[in-house]
Each structure stands twice: as C-alpha cells, then as structure tokens.
Amino acid sequence: MKKLITTILITFLAICVIQAHALIVYDPTNYGQNIANYVRQAEQLYQQVQQTATQLQQLEAMAQNLKNMDASLQQQVMSGIQNNLNVLKNIQSQSRGMTYNYGQLSTAFDQMYPGFASYNGGLSAEQYSYQIQKWQNQTHYAMHDSMKAQGLADPAKIQSEAEMLNTLISASQTAEGALAAAQTGNQIAGFQAQQLMEQKQIMAAGYRAQASYYEQQVQQQEATKARAEQSMSDWGKNPGKRKPVDVMNFGK
Question: Model-level pTM?
C-alpha cells in the first residue's frame, strides 16, 4: 500500500512539473498578426504621406502665383492645401495611436517573457517601442521648428501636433498664408515619411527577435518535457533501481 501511494505521489508531482512548463499562455500567431498589421499600417501611411507630399509640392508651385489668380482658382488651391494638411494631421494621429497599441503589446510580452532582454543583448520589447516614440518626438519638434521659421508658431510655446496643423490650415485660408502653409506642409510630410519608415523597420526587427526567442523557449520546454517523461518511463521499468526523486529539480 505504501509503495502504491508513493508511486501515485511521484507520478502526480512529475505531471505537475511537466504541466508547469506549459503554463505559459502565448498565441504567437495572434501576436504576429497584430505586429504584421502594424507594419502594414505603417507602410500604408508612408505611401499616403508620399502622395500627399507630391500634391502639396504641386499646390506650393501654384500658390506662388496665387494673388494673380481669379477668386475661384484661388479657392481651389487653398482648399487643396487645407485638405492635404488635414491628411497629414490624420496620419500623425494614426501613427501615435499605432505606437501606443504597439507599446501595450511590447509591455505584455516583456511581462510574459522577462528573460527576453538578456537573450536579445539587453534590448527588451518595450525598448523597441521607446525607439519609435523617440522618432515621433523628433518629428514633433521638427514640425514646430518649421512652423516657427515661417512665423506660424509661438517660439515660447510647443503646441500639440494637431494644434500645429490646425494653425497651418487656418493660415492657408488667405492668399498670403497659403504659400507658407504649403511649404511647411511639405516639410512636415518629409518628417512623417522618415518617421514612418523607421517605425516600420523597428517593429519588424523587434518581432523577428521576439519570434526567435519564443522558438527557443518552445524547444527548451519540449526538451524538458521529454526528459521528465523519459525519467518517469525509466523509473517505472526498473522498480528495483528506483532512486528518490528530487522534485525541485525534476526534469532539469
């Protein structure tokens, strides 16, 4: 009876050890799809910025002769500038939202896999998000400097990105301000394009590192499980040679 109880206890503990290695709940397919969607979104926004920049360049050339145009054509040019500036505002907003969501995913990954940073040369998942935020902050200040150079921003006040672009939109409603708004919009589009390209590359690089780490963890988990199962099999086949089981280190 004692032998039976001992056998049941050891078998139960071994199963617990095996299952403990399987407690990590992580869906690499879902995570990968989320990251892929963000990379794809960054690429789409990048293409949209490039198209907007091309249109603003054409409108800038037209705005140089705005005062000599009739009222109808003037309004057409100014409306075109305003529409494209609104596109830039929406792009920046979408980029910020995407970065926030990516940061949330990165934080969750680090919490689930605290060993990732050591594996990845000291670079955690969150630090990829910080790199993107750094690029976005650089874009923010570059936008402000461009507007300040045109006399469209208060040097003593750093406005939000939406406020800066709204200021440009307001300026473009007059013949005098339309050219400056178009020129500044072109510069902002350039800043955004660079930011989005970096954003896409950073997210892709981060995911490659995370996927590699996850694959390593799966392999280690499977190897541990196999050793535990083999130990139990050997223990059951050789009752005369059974040794006390070190539960704390079982399967290692």
Answer: 0.75
